[in-house]
Amino acid sequence: MNSLVLLRLMVMLVQLWPCSPSTRNSSAQNTAQSFTPVRRVKRGWLWEPLFVTEEQISPEPVYIGQVKSDLDKEDGNLEYILAGEGAGSFFDIDKYTGKIYVKQKLDREKKPFYILTAKAINRSTQLRVEPDSEFIIKVRDINDNEPQFLDGPYVATVPEMSPEGTSVTQVTATDADDPSYGNGARLLYSLVEGQPYFSVEPKTGVIRMASGMDRETKDQYLVIIQAKDMVGQPGAFSATATVTINLSDINDNPPEFQQRLYYMSVSEEAPVGTTVGKVFAEDRDTGDNAAMDYFIEADSPDVFNIITNEETQEGIILLKKRVDYESKRRYSIQVKAVNRYIDERFLKEGPFEDTTIVKINVEDADEPPVFTLDNYVMEIDEGAMRGALVGAVTARDPDDDESPVRYSIVHSSRLKRLFSINEHNGAIIATEPLDRERASWHNITVTATETRNPEKISEANVYVQVLDVNDNAPELPKNYETFVCENAVSGQLIQSISAVDKDDSAEGHHFYFSLAQEDANSSHFTVKDNQDNTAGIFTGKSGFSRQEQFFFYLPILIQDNGTPPLTSTNTLTVTVCDCDTEVNTFYCRYGAFMYSLGLSTEGLVAALACILIFLVFFLAIVAIRQQQQQKKPPFSEKMEDFRENIVSYDDEGGGEEDTEAFDISALRTRTVMRTHKPRKKVASEIQSLYRQSLQVGPDSAIFRQFISEKLEEANTDPSVPPYDSLQTYAFEGTGSLAGSLSSLGSNASDMDQSYDYLADWGPHFKQLAGMYSSHRTVGD
Questions:
Q1: Where in the sequence is the signal peptide annotated (predicted)?
Q2: pTM for the whole thing?
């Protein structure tokens, strides 16, 4: 224990009293019950009040009281026994007198009471002379615990400029001493550091604002709060806690420009949208409270615009319209910065805005020539003579030196053929007559270049409209198919016609239709003008005969209303059709086609019959030849080469021209090896190969004869390389476990060999099995 414990003036007592099991719980809870020092009798027991401090510091046991039976004669016949919580460890009893001692210090905060049992027995008989008595020892508290701030250190935030008395936060300390007894757990709060800005309520620990504070002056404060027990009386324990108080920002400061006058410059060549410069108004607030918008005052020239950079809160001045050094060289604008979010509580402090002046100088630059118009529209009559003037463009150098300008046309191959421009005065000339019906508009791009600085070029668009001239006569819109029945009556309408004109007409087209005066068929047909740009063709008589005249050609005159009017002659073909009154178009077209060929229907049927007979005869011949082809034997010398048969049996070689797919030395090994012999010994060579063929091939007279003939033919033919036949038929290789399928080298004797097993090899070997099957005869 420290020295403070020795100086405590307040001590807590231990009260000793009996209790029954029914009253144990209520007795244990009543820790503050007062005690009157008198003797009490309970169940034959005599109880005496017991007192002891909570912390026992004496090395010797401390007497706290005595229990005694009323049957005790003090002759030593009774023995007292103590049992229960702490018996023997904390508490001891004198077995002769019943006096109870405490041997160790007691801590109420660890255990506030102990339940024990007192017994009295006869030493001689060891029998109980009294019923066991249960009692509770309550430990009364002393101030032996310091206050504690369990939640510290504390952090709190309060808006700046808050009024006096505004609650900031609350701190709370705890004390382990008994709050229901004495003042050991009664705490008192005080402010150690933080005056004069804050105060604390002594009983609750609530920290409040003592005065209005500006965050822009100081945004954080450190406050120390002390908590004392014993209501702050001398000898009390204390503890401190640190509270960090941050002032949050409010919009209580307007934006302010650091410069009252800005100077900027911009080139007259700068395009719209160019950044001219930046201005900045400082706001001491933070976050949204410092957000601002920039404006250009209404009385400033409408040449510039300003936007706000949301990240840096700068005002960016942009070029809204092109500037011209020669027109105006200096601008002065007034820029205003206004807070975006305004706290109405501080409006009385003044407007939350500020203004500044920005002077902008226009820098001179070598500008390209400027056309008097961005787009020119010109007109010219179609058919105008070559060299006719279309119009003129004009451009000038806007700079002070006024450099001469040279004109040119951005030519395409077509425009270069149609137009040219005078490079000195900008006159555009038509180089050949223009046809409005081909193109009514021409788009020309003209450039103007400074002669002193050819890099300075500007362009203008010239739209040339070709004005219409009545230079196209009207005509029929299509080739009409006109038919008339042989039995047509006079005055019958057989065709309605119209006209088209490539020219334009300001008043609208109006066409006039008539029949040419020199028409020889004028008595057969007439033309009626409907006065609505259409006309009708009518029969001029009744009855027509195909035998007399199959076609009639009517010259139709069409005249327009142009100045001067133009007339064209259009031929309308009328075909006489074999019909009564209504025309069957398909049948009439068929009749006209036959008439143009000079054939009648009967003649056409006869021609088709002849063609059909010839086709049947040709198909019959083809079928007979295919039948004969199928009956020929597979080894016909005249039909196919034996080597081709070998290829068709799934030969995977590269063909006769593949000279690298095999090793020719292999053809000269084992049983097929032979030496080069001169061509003059052909007979002996054939006999040698014949003997070898008996060793490697089947015993078939036809096969041997075929091989011999092919060998002799190959050896006597100077156009083939040597061993050509041997290359194809002699040696198939020795690497395969299945052996060779070739007839050469497959049998070493003259005996016939059976090839019936080939039939079991599947459909791919069906033809081979048929050729070598044992049931085939030579006659096959």
A1: 1-21
A2: 0.44
